[in-house]
Amino acid sequence: MGILEVKNVNKRFGGLQALGDVNLSVAENTCHAIIGPNGAGKSTLLNCLIGKLIPDTGSVMFDGQSVLGRKPHEINQMGISRVFQTPEIFGDLTVFENVMIPCFAKRDGAFRMHAIESVAAETDIVDQAESMLAEVNMLEKRDIVASSLSRGDKRRLEMAMCLSQTPKLLLLDEPTAGMARADTNNTIELLKQIKARRDITMCIIEHDMHVVFSLADRITVLAQGTPLVEDTPDKIKGHPKVREAYLGEAEV
Amino acid sequence: MTDQTQHTAAGPATTRARRKSQGVLGLRGRDITLMGIVLFLTLAAPFILNPFPATSGMAQFNAGYPDLMQRFVIFGIFAIGFNILFGLTGYLSFGHAAFLGVGSYSAVWMFKLLGYNIVPGLVLSVIVAGLFSLVIGYISLRRSGIYFSILTLAFAQMSFALAYSVLTPITNGETGLQVYTSDPQYLQSADAPSIPHLFGLEMRATETLRLGGWSFDLNFGYYVCAVVMVLAFYLAIRIFRSPFGMMLRAVKSNQQRMNYTGLNSRPYTLAAFVISGMYAGLAGGLMASMDPLAGAERMQWTASGEVVLMTILGGAGTLIGPVLGAGLIKYFENIFSKINDGVLHQWFAFMPDGIEDLLVGIVHPFVGKGWHLTLGLLFMLVVIFLPGGLVEGGQRIASVFRRDRKAGGAEARAAAKRNVE
Amino acid sequence: MDAIFLQILNGLDKGSAYALIALGLTLIFGTLGVVNFAHGALFMIGAFCAVTLSRLLSLSFTTIDETRTDFLGNPMKVETPYAEWLFGPEFGAAIIDWTVPLSILFAIPVMLVVGLVMERGLIKHFYKRPHADQILVTFGLAIVLQEVIKYFYGANPIPTPAPELFRGSFDFGALLGFEANAVIYPIWRAVYFIFSLTVIAAVFGFLQFTTFGMVVRAGMADRETVGLLGIDIDKRFTIMFGIAAAVAGLAGVMYTPINPPNYHMGMDFLVLSFVVVVVGGMGSLPGAVLAGFLLGILESFASTAWAINLVPGINQIIIYLVAIVVLLTRPRGLMGRKGVMEE
């Protein structure tokens, strides 16, 4: 029984079957990659997991509880964090504030009216945020306004924000899309460190096979909204069906 | 807000040092200075605003008379509250005057039922405005952007129309609500003044201080309002620096990220809405306490527009901006509007006659009754060139001077930033 | 039956004004994506075009008529408008009488210029700014425009009569077979309604049947793609801003006999027009027109004694009430596309 269990999920947009009978099981403390050609339904699947979309049929269970019908913030509070394709950060706030907010969310829940105490007086949150920034090597940029960061740093910051909640499951939507090779490699290194240091389950959607094979423990290949194969990276590399459906057109 | 951007490269050591200094009353660093400035300005206002001797020709530019000073601080409170909603969350309400009006009505009702002591009136005005804004906010916040603005506008216009017509038993319609001798005033003791007072001290009690040619009015009502505003301002600083305030800025910055970070933005925005509604109610209550009258025109959308103007003119999202904006607009409305051609001719009297007339002709449309035109132009200029309002303007000027002094340091910082990027 | 009919008719003239202003607002929002709080001011400027023309036409010179004497026995002074001197007494008098309809010809170029200047001079710089900034700067502009008008024309309403021919009322019911005198309707209001239908038809026809309109419609649907086709869509959108201003201006010109114009009439109409746009659906032209007439008629029904007895004060709040219900249950409005401005 995995930490995330997707069973028979279907989703239609008008006449288009975006997801057809998707079954997926992600084991705890592994990195599970979902790959597939454009339009295979990867993003739709991810959106179903975080409450942005609601599947027509099927169930999505996380840690023994259904996530369907819950609001995004409730799903996050269950322990699922998400890194977006284009980094979603609080652009007007400083780097440090960006990391403090998820720390507050973790400690105080979805809403708390703490309107009188100063932020700086919340020493446990400040310490937590500082050590998180240290972990991603961004401590020296703590007082920079986040929107002026470079793209790579924005990505790094977004990961720090997600990790500071110590989520059970981290969803990554093409974390290296549009990045230069050097940035991509840095991101891979960062993710490897995270994996090594923490008890965390990761579910990653990615186009870049280099990223996928460096990180994933298991890989699901999605094609036209349906899982084609699920196996270990080595087996996937050699799988004839995958080569035919997908890898033939991508860099390996 | 700029202080966050300025100290780059502050390591953990400085944080720990900062953490140790607990400051005064929970305020730190610059906020203490800011609070001190506001405290000084409000307490000394009767003197500062009357810089010209009473007999001089410039005396008409003195703004230190009780009526106007009361309006300065009351609208200051209104704008401080509005800024907590608009400045922090970015939700632009065009209906906040409704809460001000409700506050005024509540206070006058307390005068009618209980007596002229202003305390019950103020308490009720805050409570009623809070409840009213809870209802309107709960509904309006289901939408964002322009839809939110239109919803608040619609609610306020409805309140205004109803106050004029159907709700006449409560609001006394066009005449406006006022206190009559036939009102019960159950708690009014025989020896208490029959005008608004605070435990016997009359709001209109004024001590006139004459020093040489100068004359200063020390009005009790003004000082009551001033103390309330100082408290309101203090509370606003605490809110701005609190985790709650940070969350409100997060709403403005990226609501989607906020929701995917496990935070429910709705109660945060609603709380901000209600707080700003209560500030508006308090302002309305104070207004009625200075002059025990309440009329529906206080609720009209143009009145809501006025507080928007104040906040943006001064600087939305800054602490002191809304207060400055409120002061500026009220000064315009009451003083600037009195400049007539006679005064203009005096000013330009040193010029040759033809040029004098020409100058008067040019300036004429913008002063006196045309003060709205100047205000509109000023407002447009601020929105176009200074989105941070007058406060941003001030900071830009200040930074020009600072750059001269610290040129070396700034260069080093710029270089560091380049390396980062 | 005839009572209902009368209420519908009564709602039409206000509805026409709402529809025209909302149409212009929607044109601007749909093409340029700008929320224009100064649109009410354009309506007001249109009305003052009529006032201006009427003042120009009634400029007179004084002559002394030796053949007649006034009550003091002095030779009588006679005021002759230049218009009569120029065009002859009869034709000149007719021109003066027909000032309001003639103002249409005067207002179109004026409003086009006002619109173009406004777009090029100010609005252009706000395309990329948040909607809140657009609202604020146009709100400021509206204040400025109305103060300028106030400076030149004063604060009091200025009566501007309709031509002699269209004054008074006619028995509209009799034409349709109702009892005599059951449905009496002012002639000018009927003229206003027909006029607004004409303008609406002209705008839709222009968008539907001309190449220019086709490009504009394509640009409203997908600005980028049209831009990529090498078409200068911005220029066309600028022209549409001018047209939208002209539509608002014409609505104002023809409204003057119904309601003497004053400097704040724009603000009075603005709030309601925005409500109309939202009810119709942000960005939907047919929606704006439909909602304009619908709300005008609804308002007229709510003003009947019957409705007021049923729900006191309903006439004052009906439009806002409808807006609130629509926004909460169907935020895209009656005919709007999903996702427009929902942020």
From TrEMBL, chain A:
Q: Which UniProt keywords apply?
A: ATP-binding, Nucleotide-binding, Transport
What GO MF terms are annotated?
Answer: ATP binding; ATP hydrolysis activity
Which Pfam families does the record cross-reference, listed alphabetically? ABC_tran, BCA_ABC_TP_C
What Gene Ontology cellular-component terms does the record carry?
Answer: plasma membrane
InterPro entries assigned to the protein according to its UniProt record, in alphabetical order: AAA+_ATPase, ABC_AA/LPS_Transport, ABC_transporter-like_ATP-bd, BCA_ABC_TP_C, P-loop_NTPase
Question: What Gene3D superfamilies does the record tag this protein with?
Answer: P-loop containing nucleotide triphosphate hydrolases (3.40.50.300)
Q: Which residues form the signal peptide?
A: none
Which named protein is this?
A: ABC transporter ATP-binding protein
Task: Give the organism the record lists.
Answer: Palleronia sediminis
User: Which lineage is the organism of this entry classified under, starting from the top rank?
Assistant: Bacteria, Pseudomonadati, Pseudomonadota, Alphaproteobacteria, Rhodobacterales
From TrEMBL, chain C:
Does the keyword Protease belong to this entry? no
List all membrane-crossing ranges.
15-35, 42-64, 91-114, 191-216, 236-257, 269-298, 304-328
Which Pfam families does the record match to this protein? BPD_transp_2
CDD domains, per the entry: TM_PBP1_LivH_like (cd06582)
Q: How does it sit in the membrane?
A: Multi-pass membrane protein
GO biological process annotations for this chain's record?
amino acid transport
Report the GO molecular function annotations: transmembrane transporter activity
- Provide one Gene Ontology cellular component: plasma membrane
Q: Which UniProt keywords apply?
A: Amino-acid transport, Cell membrane, Membrane, Transmembrane, Transmembrane helix, Transport
Keyword Transferase attached? no
Compartment(s) where it occurs, according to its Swiss-Prot or TrEMBL record:
Cell membrane
Concerning InterPro entries, the annotation shows: ABC_transp_permease, BCAA_transport_permease
Q: Give the matching PANTHER family.
A: ABC TRANSPORTER ATP-BINDING PROTEIN, BRANCHED-CHAIN AMINO ACID TRANSPORT SYSTEM PERMEASE PROTEIN LIVH
Query: According to its UniProt record, which protein family does this protein belong to?
Result: Belongs to the binding-protein-dependent transport system permease family. LivHM subfamily.
Query: What is the protein name stated in its UniProt record?
Result: Branched-chain amino acid ABC transporter permease
Question: From which organism does this entry originate?
Answer: Palleronia sediminis
